Amino acid sequence: GWPERVKQQQANWIGRSEGANVDFILCDAEGNAPADPTEDDIITVFTTRADTLFGCSFFLLAPESKLVPQLVAGTEYEAPVMELVEAAKKVTAVERAQGDREKHGAFTGRYVVNPINGEKVPVWVGDYIVADYGTGAVMAVPCGDQRDFEFARKYDLPIIPIILGEDDPLYPQLKDERNRVVTSVDWEEAYNAEGTLVQSGRFTGMTGGKHSEGEEAVVTALQEMGRGKRTVEFRLRDWLISRQRYWGNPIPAIHCEHCGVVPVPEEDLPVRLPEDIDLAAGETLATHAGFVNTTCPKCGVPAKRETDTMDTFTCSSWYYMRYTDPHNVHGPFDPAKANAWMPVDQYIGGIEHAILHLLYSRFFTKVLRDCGLLDFDEPFTNLLCQGMVLDAHGDVMSKSKGNVVSPEEMIAEYGADAVRAYILFLGPPEKEKLWNEDGLPGMYKFLNRLWRQVHDLMGKADEDTLFAGSVDEKAAQAAAEKLARERHRVVGKVSADIERNNFNTAIAAIMELSNAAGEFLRATDAEARAANADYAALSQEVAEVLVKLMAPITPHLSDELWRTALGREGFVYSEPWPEFDPEKAKADEVELAVQICGKVKTRIMVAADAPEPDILEAARAAVSDALAGKEVKKEVYVPGRLVNIVAV
Ligand code: ANZ
Ligand code: ZN
Q: Looking at residues 218-239, what average pLDDT do you find?
């Protein structure tokens, strides 16, 4: 239940990869390959896709690579390359791993030779290459790797198709082609599935992909040439958990000049931060005598406490377990309680935590499980990463930029429920959103209308909102039928939308139910609704349904209506969710003949109350083949009977 993107980022962050090291040979500054290459002339890459070697159109070094300054020293490429190297220092590994940053690169002026086909390819520096993974050098294959693809598009480097799916338009032409005849593609993105190798010399026709037949064959060939070997790479990252900060949990250790580092004995835990520290005056834990000075628990001589504190992530990695047992003074939590409540069904958090908090939490959970404290191994069953809210200029709102809007003023004017409903109405929670308050008064108006409608339906409206004229019985009946249908349809839709976190479409559906209620209220009056048992029952039911559907979105308004308008007790949240019957949600359908120039071509079923434009569209769609190439001159709709399309 986690977004693919987060899983991918975690897989990129730590893990195990089977692949091969492949040796490329560095050409001299004139672009000539050494006749007899030595160790120093070799640059090795790590690849999981040796099968794609024939599609390597350039070569990449990480900005931190020690080779980079040597390659460009004293050349015209030095300035742009070193500028890129400097800029890359400001990008953290976490940001690089996020993968969706714009890529930057610079040509070094040098070339390397591809061992499989002897081809010379240019060496670039690319800021998406990680220095401490593999060898820090990469054979770039834009047709098979999305990052290389984007880089190639940006810097106009060749994208050579060497792996194709059978449905690719190039497949028939290239499937047996050993030589390179096509050197560019108009693709939108790289082809990163399994496929057939093409334009790949004697490997053409083999399957390509991770651990594929082609990959095996190419690695074997490289091994025979002495230019490659099988390897396994582990991506492992350090987590720096100690910091020189006051806020953080103290590391329970004591430094003794005789005994070294001594753990604080269990009975002295927890070590608490001093509260009489004057941070504003520059005091730190290290300068706070009362905190630092202690005695060695082993030998009893004066000793000093550890003054680094732990990264706050150490707390956020397990706080959810503490929630299951918050008052426990004997331990972090009672395993029975944690096991009863956990794992978290639905976790909501920003994508920026993908490889920090969300990875550490999984790690802590697994460690606690291995310690026998937990009987589950993943902390969060479902994860929703909410989209960022952008300001009017499209910039991400953040405290540090000072462009956040405070909900307080809006709440003071429209109330917390209106602001909450409006935020939910902005769009699906995982999408990013431009903040714009223009729609807030509209949401406020809707909630007011809903308030009046529920009172009207319950026969509790102010006198002056009552309909005074005579009731057209046929119109009232039609409005009642539509409202009864909408009641079932909308409950079905809202139930499904909420399950998928689509609160915006749920609110839109509730608005439709409110519209149908409005039509019904306008077509009847309080007296007619009270006199007709069906109308009375429908009114009450719809009032209750509206209140229940709105309750998760506008809890205050709904509870107020629950008690005042509906005259109930307690809270809506302890009531059952409304039931619905999909059969009752169906509109009556009628069959229409569809004619072209008076001749019946087919028949269609349409909702009896569908508006004319919808019916004409359905009719045209039903005979679209017959209409192909013709111009529609006229359309005649005879309700309940037919649509005639005049086309020439
Ligand atoms: C050529 C190629 C072709 C690749 C293709 C992929 C697809 P994992 O699976 O995560 O281990 N790579 C190697 N070292 C890198 C580094 N230091 N920084 C950034 N990327 C690096 O990824 C292995 C793949 O990541 C390698 O396989 C290499 O690109 C790239 F169609 O080589 B591949
Ligand atoms: Zn000691």
A: 93
